[in-house]
Design brief:
Largest sheet: 3 strands, antiparallel
Number of domains: 3
Number of helices: 12
Radius of gyration: 24 Å
Order of helices and strands: HHHHEEHHHEEHEEEHHHEEHE
CATH superfamily of the largest domain: Elongation factor Ts, dimerisation domain
CATH architecture of the largest domain: 2-Layer Sandwich
Helix content: 40-55%
CATH topology of the largest domain: Tetrahydropterin Synthase, Chain A
Distance between the termini: 50 Å
CATH class of the largest domain: Alpha Beta
Shape: elongated
Strand order of the largest sheet: 1-2-5
Structural class: alpha+beta
Length: about 280
């Protein structure tokens, strides 16, 4: 007879998040020793990591943290992915995301490579994520990390499904005066997903390609050669209004722009970051 009880099964499931069958097999193999059973589940899980590498992890959550520093604030935004929304709302997955965020913040990581290498309980974040993937039985991926530094950093996390953790996360870096409207701007960013803060932030190669496409489209429509420059300029203005934050029509008042709202507050937005799970 196995040397463990129903209470042991429940305790091991709570510690690891593993399924009932896996827990029973681990306890059988460990002869009822809970610590050994945890190690067995971890080892078996890690062996399965490579099998899961080709699978898609497009569910998950976004988390943010804002810290006070000399001269202002620093915000950190991360996206942790799972394969299913079932795991995305699992308490152990959420707890893992919070621990990873803490480690990333403590390390001052500003990009994914630095985040994966950050120390978490004496191990790199990547190893801890892989271990938890083994226990949860799904591919778990720290997909991306962003860091925003400014006098004031404002966060906005949005749930697209009330039963799931936040799926959209935004950080807005601004000066103190713009901080008064920064949350509204962050909510706008969540909804309208701008790619750039200002025109000058759009890479030159993207601008050149958009101009080329606009010109070729106009020629294909049979527009006169003399009219092409103005047509291209008009279509580029449309591109900027769609993709540049300060030129977008403001969500709460489409008659004005985000740039005008910030300007009327007497301040400036200096940077932003936006993640949507799986996008």
């Amino acid at each position: 007879m196995a040397n463990y009880t129903v209470a042991d099964i429940q305790a091991l499931r709570e510690r690891t998040g593993a399924g009932m069958l896996d827990v029973k097999k681990a306890l059988d193999e460990a002869d009822g020793d809970l610590d050994k059973a945890v190690d067995i589940l971890r080892v078996k899980g890690l062996k399965g990591v490579t099998k899961r590498e080709g699978r898609s992890a497009s569910e998950g959550l976004v988390l943010a943290s804002i810290q006070d520093v000399d001269g202002g604030q620093v915000g950190t935004l991360l996206e942790l992915n799972s394969e299913t929304d079932f795991v995305a709302k699992n308490e152990k997955f959420i707890a893992l995301a919070e621990k990873v965020l803490g480690a990333v913040v403590a390390a001052g990581a500003a990009d994914l490579d630095a985040a994966l290498a950050a120390d978490l309980d004496g191990k790199p974040v990547k190893d801890v994520v892989d271990e938890n993937a083994g226990v949860l039985g799904e591919k778990i991926v720290l997909r991306r990390v962003a860091r925003v530094e400014a006098p004031v950093v404002t966060e906005y996390l949005h749930r697209t499904n009330k039963d799931l953790p936040a799926q959209v996360g935004v950080l807005v870096g601004s000066d103190a005066k713009a901080g008064e409207v920064a949350r509204d701007v962050a909510m706008h960013i969540a909804a309208y997903s701008p790619k750039y803060l200002a025109r000058e932030d759009v890479p030159a190669d993207i601008v050149a390609n958009e101009e080329r496409v606009a010109e070729e489209t106009a020629k294909g429509e049979g527009k006169p050669e003399a009219a092409l420059p103005k047509i291209v300029q008009g279509r580029m203005n449309g591109f900027f209004k769609e993709n540049v934050l300060v030129e977008q029509a403001f969500a709460k008042d489409p008659k004005t722009t985000v740039g005008k709202v910030v300007e009327n507050a007497g301040g400036a937005v200096v940077s932003f970051a936006r993640f949507r799970v799986g996008a």
